[in-house]
UniProtKB/TrEMBL annotation:
Keywords: Hydrolase
Catalytic-site annotation from UniProt: 50
Keyword Hydrolase attributed: yes
Protein name: Alpha/beta hydrolase fold-3 domain-containing protein
UniProt key word Hydrolase: yes
GO MF annotations, alphabetized: hydrolase activity
InterPro entries the UniProt entry points to: AB_hydrolase_3, AB_hydrolase_fold, GDXG_lipolytic_enzyme, Lipase_GDXG_put_SER_AS
Family: Belongs to the 'GDXG' lipolytic enzyme family.
Species of origin: Rotaria magnacalcarata
Span of domain Alpha/beta hydrolase fold-3: 3-174
Length: 198
């Protein structure tokens, strides 16, 4: 059962409103599984692509009792000079550093928000009680190294992880299945296999 969360969006609604919405919906689903067609033994997880990847990851730090997380092309910090930021800064890669800065300037009220421990996940000190995580990263993506680094932190903390790099694709590939047919199918099959093993 897949539930798409319609959290309030920026720029009208800035942090932490959209994250609070996602956490609240997740809590409601956990507390009312049967109302959504599940039963008490059904495992509950979160998944997100791009900004949704950050939100899904953050929800796992805030809401306890989740069974898995699927993070696709997430950005997990806003100030580091990660190599992929520079390597894929040309317009040919669609999402550039300038575009990332524009997104974050609309999603957050100020730089202090971007430093908040709920979204600056690469700076967190504790990764206790996090569920198993599937990372899906695009090879030609300025936020690719966010996934590499966050995966290493979770592994070091003893969280079960799986990392899959989708070769030859740019950041928004998963939202364009008509163009990236094989790559999107690879993601779907990877997600299915991951969920079957939870």
């Amino acid at each position: 059962i897949w539930i798409s969360v319609e959290y309030r969006l920026s720029p009208e609604y800035k942090f932490p409103i959209w994250l609070d919405d996602a956490c609240e919906v997740t809590r409601q689903i956990l507390a009312n599984k049967k109302d959504y067609g599940a039963d008490e033994t059904t495992k509950i997880g979160v998944a997100g692509d791009s900004a949704g990847g950050l939100i899904a990851a953050s929800v796992c730090h805030t809401v306890k009792g989740l069974d898995f997380q699927i993070l696709i092309c997430g950005q997990f910090e806003f100030f580091r000079e990660l190599p992929s930021r520079t390597e894929f800064s040309h317009n040919i890669f669609v999402i550039t550093r300038d575009v990332l800065d524009w997104f974050s300037s609309n999603a957050f009220r100020n730089d202090d928000d971007k430093k908040d421990s709920r979204v600056s996940l690469l700076d967190k000190e504790s990764f206790d009680s996090l569920p198993p995580c599937l990372f899906i990263a695009a090879e030609l993506d300025p936020v690719r190294d966010d996934s590499y680094n966050y995966n290493k932190l979770l592994e070091k903390a003893g969280v079960k992880t799986k990392f899959v790099l989708i070769k030859g694709v740019v950041h928004p590939f998963f939202s364009i299945p008509g163009i990236f047919i094989k790559s999107c199918q690879e993601v779907i099959e990877t997600v299915q296999e991951f969920m079957e093993n939870q």
